[in-house]
Amino acid sequence: MLHAALLLGLVLALPTSAETLEVPLGQQGDATLPLPLRGQTQDAVLKRFGPPNERRPAVGNPSISRLDYREFSVYFESGRVIDSVRHHQPRAPREYK
Q: CB neighbours (10 Å) of residue 45?
């Protein structure tokens, strides 16, 4: 009981202040860009979008592989799309004074 009271007293005695940090994220790619859909086969993705800029080998268990295109990446498990992610497209650089 004494330890709990002591701890509560220490916590209440600490100064409480917070600072807000703003980090501009820009846009997460072109929202109108069509992406491969969950469940599509890797062959269907290759047929529709062509060869990727880079192929990442399968890793882990279950094994997950990835195709990287210029504007998005596609993740596969057992040869089927599990997710498609647009690449970050930064806004024009901010000018600081």
A: 22
